[in-house]
Amino acid sequence: MKTVEINVYQFDELSDKAKQKAREWWVEGGLDYGWWYGTFDDANQIDCEISAFDIDRASYCDLKCKYGFQETATKILQNHGESCDTYQLAKEFNEEYDNLVEKYGSYDANQDSYIVDEENEYDFDQEVDELESEYEKMLGEEYLSILRKEYEWLTSEEQIDESIRINEYEFTEDGKIF
């Protein structure tokens, strides 16, 4: 039997070239744990489901609102901060929906709400369908942006270096994981 002695190094002890090789290793294997789960959970909390996404060439996020669009908008307004783009989108959706109700309906003082007049119901439904479709599409675009930003942060040099340091990985002199 032959005994071979190998020197191992902490990340900060590596040359710049070896550090880059260690970073490449991290990007290839370090993100295999489902980095997107937090964003999927956020969508679920507002009654939406992300079934697929691609932040690269195809650039899409397949998001569907599971129940009602007004309920989703309400949950966003309750749970997302005012500085979030999703908050602004939900606010605009509610305003546009209210404008349609006012346009096609009349106020019922007994119920303290607007009721869509029967003769305007078809036009109202058509415009609401268009509004909801656009809202769902734009919400999907916002979640795609969230996913893209999350990935960019996780694969940033600063974050990769910190992840490697925290996990105390050891490398050979050329930056290969030991």
* Pattern of helices and strands: HHEEHHEEHH
Gross morphology: rod-shaped
**Helix content range of the residues, please?**
55-70%
Beta content comes to: 5-15%
Radius of gyration: 25 Å
**What is the average of the pLDDT values?**
93
Structural class: mainly alpha
Q: What's the total number of strands?
A: 4
Please, could you describe this protein's structure?
55% of the residues lie in helices and 12% in strands. The protein contains 6 helices and 4 strands. The protein has helices at residues 16-29, 37-45, 69-79, 85-104, 121-154, 157-166; strands at 48-54, 60-65, 105-108, 113-116. The strands form 2 sheets. A two-stranded antiparallel ribbon has the order 1-2. A two-stranded antiparallel ribbon has the order 3-4. Helix 1 (16-29) packs across helix 6 and helix 4 (85-104) runs antiparallel to helix 5 (121-154). It is rod-shaped and about 90 Å long. The mean pLDDT is 93.
Can you give me a brief rundown of this structure?
The protein has helices at 16-29, 37-45, 69-79, 85-104, 121-154, 157-166, and strands spanning 48-54, 60-65, 105-108, 113-116. With 178 residues, it is mostly helical.
SSE layout and pairing:
Layout: H1 16-29, H2 37-45, E1 48-54, E2 60-65, H3 69-79, H4 85-104, E3 105-108, E4 113-116, H5 121-154, H6 157-166
Antiparallel strand pairs: 1-2, 3-4
Helix pairs in contact: 1-6, 3-4, 4-5
List keywords for this structure.
single chain, 178 residues, mainly alpha, two-stranded antiparallel ribbon, two-stranded antiparallel sheet, 4 strands, 55% helix
